[in-house]
Design a protein that fits this description.
By secondary structure, this protein is α+β, with helices and mostly antiparallel strands. It has one domain. It is built from 6 helices and 11 strands. Strands 2, 3, 6 and 7 form a 4-stranded antiparallel beta sheet that branches. A 3-stranded antiparallel beta sheet has the order 10-1-11. It has a two-stranded antiparallel sheet with strand order 4-5. Strand 6 and strand 7 form a beta hairpin. Helix 1 runs antiparallel to helix 3 and helix 3 packs parallel to helix 6. It is globular, with a radius of gyration of 20 Å. The two termini are 39 Å apart.
């Protein structure tokens, strides 16, 4: 998946030395899954409708619709900066096989499973927020993992979509603080609300900020503030151990030492008010 001009990669903390292990720290994220049983025409109509609804929300950018099928679903035929490749990768699944249970978990082999038909688009919620993509895919019944050896994909004949968007670093005071974070987070939630209201489309959402279930703004702000403070402390401790080679998105925060939440930015206030109403948010503090 691509990122917005001021967006972030999905690996927040990375050690640039290839001889050192890569350290990942996810951050507050919204995860979603779509499932649909119907025709290609119906699936295309659902995604097209979601794109139209996205254009009515305060996303910084909504991309064109991309549809690929058959021979068009081969990633090797596209250049690195081709937006069709981004859509294809957004529909990609990681398939595990030859799973062996071990005392501390499991050991397995993995292979990328690309769709045989995908229709989708992406949104840029705002500054310092990951791109959020939406769509539907159909997958092949089986995939070749070795010459002459195929395994079942296990996804059936329906349409699927699984994606996520890390919104935490949109709370950076340099780009609008909590107000910018709320615009990004609630825009994604509002579009997922539209998806959940679509007949025939099954939607599952895991919102680490718990706004999807609580619809409570103070609770969401408290959650992201607490995560920022925890990650700032963790970064400081890790940097002391690892050294200056450690990099983190937290470094973009001007108040890394003393994290504070920013107030409402007047130019964005009206859009945020509309989002709060659209997502049926409450400003009541939890007991």
């Amino acid at each position: 998946m691509g990122t917005a001009e001021q967006g972030l990669s999905r690996t927040d903390l990375e050690l640039p030395n290839p001889n050192l292990a890569t350290l990942k720290c996810v951050g507050l994220t919204i995860n979603w899954n779509f499932n649909f049983t119907g025709t290609a025409q119906d699936a295309r109509g659902i995604v097209r409708n979601l794109k139209h609804q996205a254009q009515d929300l305060p996303f910084a950018h909504v991309s064109d619709l991309v549809e690929l099928k058959g021979a068009e679903c081969k990633p090797g035929i596209y250049s690195h900066d081709d937006p069709r490749l981004d859509t294809l990768r957004d529909g990609r699944r990681m398939l595990e096989y030859d799973i062996v249970q071990i005392p501390n978990g499991k050991r397995c082999s993995q292979i990328d499973l690309y769709p045989k038909h995908v229709v989708g688009f992406y949104t840029e919620p705002g500054a310092d927020c990951e791109v959020a993509s939406f769509g539907l895919c159909r997958y092949p019944a089986e995939v070749e993992v070795q010459p002459g050896r195929k395994i079942a994909a296990g996804l059936g004949c329906g349409w699927h979509w699984a994606q996520y968007c890390k919104t935490q670093f949109a709370s950076n005071p340099k780009v609008g603080g909590i107000n910018n974070f709320l615009l990004c987070h609630l825009s994604v939630i509002a579009l997922l609300d539209a998806a959940a209201a679509t007949p025939g489309l099954a939607v599952e959402v895991d919102d680490e900020g718990e706004f999807w279930t609580k619809r409570n703004v103070p609770a969401l702000v408290q959650e992201v503030t607490g995560m920022n403070e925890a990650m700032a402390a963790m970064f400081s401790n890790l940097q002391s151990s690892v050294g200056p080679g450690l990099e983190s998105s937290m470094q973009r925060f001007p108040n890394l030492d003393q994290l504070e939440t920013a107030g409402i930015n007047q130019p964005q206030a009206m859009a945020l008010c509309r989002l709060l109403a659209k997502t049926k948010a409450t400003s009541e503090k939890l007991q």
